[in-house]
Structure formats: structure tokens, C-alpha cells
Structure prediction request, 286 residues.
Amino acid sequence: MTQTVTVKSREGRQAERPARVLRPRVDLIEREREWTLIADLPGVDSEAIRMQTEKGKLHLCAERRALPEPPEGGRWLMRERPLGRYEATFELGEGIDTDAIGADLKNGVLVVHLPKCERLQPRKVEVRAG
Amino acid sequence: MVRTLFPRVWRPLDLLGPDWDRAFASVFAADPFREVFDVLGGASEREGFLALDAWETPQALIVEVDLPGVEAKDVDVQVQAGELVLKVARRDSSQEGDRWLRRERGVGSFTRTLTLPSEIDPQAVQAELCDGVLRLELPKAPQVQPRTIEVKAIES
Prediction:
């Protein structure tokens, strides 16, 4: 059976997807030695991510690769993906070793490791027999 | 005596406008199981997971889907009876002892079904996943592809 679907013409709608500031979805987890921030950044190259700490804040900015446009003679069927730049700012409390913050990007997901500073690290106390 | 061991570390700045709430609601409240291309007359936007763009060229349909955090082995693409069925799973990466302070990234299995507006060649479908974006190329069946017919000049 062949289903027929009427697809409305999308011509002239090209300009209707303005670039804007996007807020990534994030998870935030506290672990034994660090806080882990996980952000969805699909379609972003690692070189296009800028992260900096300043005055107790962590700024994250990531430019998404340009979305392809249908070639001449083609047309849009669906357009859900937003165009623009991901941005998020977090206020850092005390207890983060800001010099040791590190991040990696895999499968469009950014994982930021925010190690706890020395005094918050779990420590084993040895009990000596006296 | 109970004491707070850890300082209050995170306080999100007030960046979450109404747009964000709506985007969040749209993914989880919308019925992801049944969709046709036509529904998107008034394009909706799903920020982040499963947001989809599709376009048609004379030769093929191209679909790109945002799937951050999904491994290639957890993507299942099927074309049958004029429909494209996309099933994906995003694994839960939490570890034992995790204390969640915020959780916006959904995990689990997701399905989207799209009615194809044109007959395609199921054998020729190609899929690749790069940086959390799945790209599908669905070449149209030869019989619906435009064909240029050569006109021969015949001397009378």
C-alpha cells in the first residue's frame, strides 16, 4: 500500500529559522571526587567550544555547525533543529578546584569534570594501634 | 547532629526562559510514536534530543536527527510500507553513589515514525552517525526519480 502525504511547500520559509541562543540540556551529578556536568551539544566540533571560569562563574559557549540547506530544486519537509549557539552559565560555589577543571566531548555530549578541592576529597583515616 | 558536608555549589543563573520550558515539555509531552511529514506545516522545535530536519531532493530524501550520547549500535533504522521507523536508545551513564543535582537529559528508548512522501529504494538507504547527529540518505526508487528523456532527431 502506498501512502500519499501532502507535503506543503516550504519555499520562502528559509529565513524563518533565525540563529539564536540555545540552552543545552544538562545533567549535574555530585560524585566522590568531583562534580560532573554533562551537556548535550549535537553537531558541535570540539574546536567550537569555549569554556572559561571568571569571577566564580563557568561560561560555556558552543557554536553549532551550520545546518545544511536543500540544494537547488529541493525542499524542506521538516525543520525542528534549532540554529544558533549554545550558551550556559553556572555559578561556581566554593570547593571546586577551578585550575583542574577538564572536559571531553564524545558523540555530541560534553562532559565537564570539576574536581573537588583538597579539603573536600574523601580521606581515609588510619587508626593505629597504640 | 546533622551537618551539611558540602557547600551549596551550583545555582543556575536565571537563563531558563519560557522557551526552554516549552522545548523541554515538547519532547516529553508530545507523542513521539506517530508523525507524518505533513504535521510540520508549522514547524515545531525540539531542542536537543531527537530534533529532526528532513528535506527532499529530486533524487533522495535526507533526514538528520540530533542524537547526542547515542552509540551507533543503539540506532535501528527500518524502512517498510512507506514508513521510516527510527528506534534509538540512550544509555544511562550514572554510577553507583551518584548524587543527582539536576537531570534534564532523558535516557531510555525512543521511537519516531515518519511517513515517507515518496517511494524510496530500501536497499540503498545509508546511515551515519557523527558528533551526535544521525544522517540518513534515502534514495528514491528508480521509477519515481526524474528522468531526462533524450530526444533523437530523425531525418525525414
Notes: Confidence is low (pLDDT under 50) at residues 1-46 of chain B. Chain B touches chain A through 65 residues (CB under 8 Å). Helices of chain B lie at 18-29.
